[in-house]
Structure prediction request, 251 residues.
Amino acid sequence: MTRKKIVAGNWKMNGSLASNEQLLEGIIAKIESSSDSLVIVSSPSPYLGQVSELVKNTTVSLAAQNVSQHSSGAYTGEVSLDMLKEFSVEYVLVGHSERRTYYSETDSIVADKVKAVLESGMKPILCIGETLEERQAEQTLNVCVKQIDAVLNTVDVSNFENVVIAYEPVWAIGTGLSATAQQAQDVHEFIRKHIATYNANVAEKVQILYGGSVKANNSEELFSMADIDGALVGGASLIVDEFVGIIKAAG
Ligand code: PEP
Prediction:
């Protein structure tokens, strides 16, 4: 089956009112209206209002980089689902390795966030992936299963029609060291087969993105792989020509 490709930019903790505007105007001006892919940008929380206005009436969708699993109340510094929805946020990154590593987000917290995002009517982009040590210890597939099963123990597999999975080997994020297209394909195929053990129909539909040093010059080969349905892009999403090059490679 043909799945729509997604190219999602993760700006991380970068940007300013001026640079966001310049970046988005550059991207929007260069995106082909004929493009079949879905383009998403994930802005830092303080800029969601600005970015939401800039992408209004364009083909670009808005994502947040994080959300609280709690609906409201005494959670200083956190951002709620309802707040995101007021800014027309459609997608939320959940479980990015930087959140898992620096902010101690466990599989259980990630699962609660996925559940909360789904219940709010937005779509989670669930990030999973192994560290270098885990890959060297041949634990890649076990790590992916553990991270996905934590979510599947919390929400029914049918919800995965509204979950985007991003396989992001931690050793490839921000390092310039991308997984090869074949390495990524092998893991994506495995993830799809694993989800098929729960529900084959959902497994065929679920979009699985690759993330980790994706650039314009390696995206075409990655996107040619049967189970790679797009990319989650960090550094290159901050450079107009790089990001547009990746979008064009997605078709
Ligand atoms: C990311 O932040 O999810 C990411 C993949 O970053 P980069 O493209 O810079 O490796």
The first strand starts at residue 6 and ends at 10.
